[in-house]
Amino acid sequence: MRKKIGILGGTFDPPHLGHLIIANEVFHRLELDEIQFMPNQEPPHKERESHTSNRDRIRMLELAIQGNPFFSIEKIELERKGRSFTYDTMKMLMERNPENEYYFIIGADMVEYLPNWHQVDELMKMIKFVGVNRPNYELESSYPIIPIEVPFIEISSSMIRKRTKNGETINYLLPYGVINYIEENQLYGS
Ligand SMILES: Nc1ncnc2c1ncn2[C@@H]1O[C@H](COP(=O)(O)OP(=O)(O)OP(=O)(O)O)[C@@H](O)[C@H]1O
Ligand SMILES: O=C(O)c1ccc[n+]([C@@H]2O[C@H](COP(=O)([O-])O)[C@@H](O)[C@H]2O)c1
């Protein structure tokens, strides 16, 4: 059966409420069958500031999505070394699951960056892109993205890493299970 799958690719270092809110909004607005959170091995466009292990990022994602039967984790990018180009990943995923229709969800910062994506024109022919608004970025593109308005959420993983390092509160910015995990495992200098 043909399924409509939303993919939220990211570094998730750590996952936060911004990720969960945009995934949930797009899931309902586009009437998708499921959302797969897809952690990258190495982001194509930025140097990782933090060297949180894949195991920790996966565990935090598991805790973040716990209880939502429509959310799961796709680990395909962790199987390959090097930079995780979405074009390579989606080619592999579509070969494995040719019956699925994929909607790749990105925040407005990534929408602005789209012209620099590897093989972006080919990628546009393979899958649909869904862009969601994010404070300080424009949700406009010459590429045919599906724009979805979500509540503006001024939370980022870098903000959470910085606050944790400085001993500031991160309460209510991410699920409690993830906050506890960060504290118990002393991530981000906590
Ligand atoms: N608050 C937010 N609002 C809208 N989109 C978001 C938000 N946070 C993350 N995203 C989107 O989720 C995807 C994965 O983001 P990522 O895991 O890199 O988190 P991040 O908060 O942007 O991280 P960092 O601060 O380390 O750059 C990207 O497409 C990003 O644009
Ligand atoms: O393939 C590319 O060229 C490319 C360039 C920038 C970002 N991406 C993907 O977009 C998703 C969000 O990126 P990030 O770094 O904000 O987590 C993630 O899955 C990245 O691998 C992909």
Account of the 3D structure:
The structure is a single chain. The model has no long low-confidence stretch (mean pLDDT 95). The protein starts with a strand and ends in a 6-residue tail after the last helix. Strands 3-2-1-4-5-6 form a six-stranded parallel sheet. The chain is an alpha/beta fold. It has helices spanning 17-29, 54-65, 86-96, 108-113, 120-126, 157-165, 176-184; strands spanning 4-10, 34-39, 71-73, 101-107, 128-132, 146-148. The protein has seven helices and six strands, in the order βαβαβαβααββαα. α2 packs antiparallel against α7 (176-184). Residues 7-163 form the Cytidyltransferase-like domain. It catalyses: nicotinate beta-D-ribonucleotide + ATP + H(+) = deamido-NAD(+) + diphosphate. InterPro entries: Cyt_trans-like, NadD/NMNAT, Rossmann-like_a/b/a_fold. One of its GO terms (molecular function) is ATP binding.
Could you name the ranges where pLDDT drops below 50 across 5 or more consecutive residues?
none
Roughly how much helix do the residues carry, as a percent range? 25-40%
Q: Which percent band covers the strand fraction?
A: 15-25%
User: What is the succession of H and E elements?
Assistant: EHEHEHEHHEEHH
Give the radius of gyration.
16 Å
Alpha plus pi helix count: 7
Largest sheet, described in full? 6 strands, parallel
Structural class: alpha/beta
**How far apart lie the N and C ends?**
46 Å
Oligomer: single chain
What is the overall shape? globular
Q: Strands of the biggest beta sheet: in what spatial order?
A: 3-2-1-4-5-6
- What is the tally of beta strands? 6
Mean pLDDT: 95
Q: Which kinds of small molecule does this entry bind, naming each only once? A: adenosine-5'-triphosphate, nicotinate mononucleotide
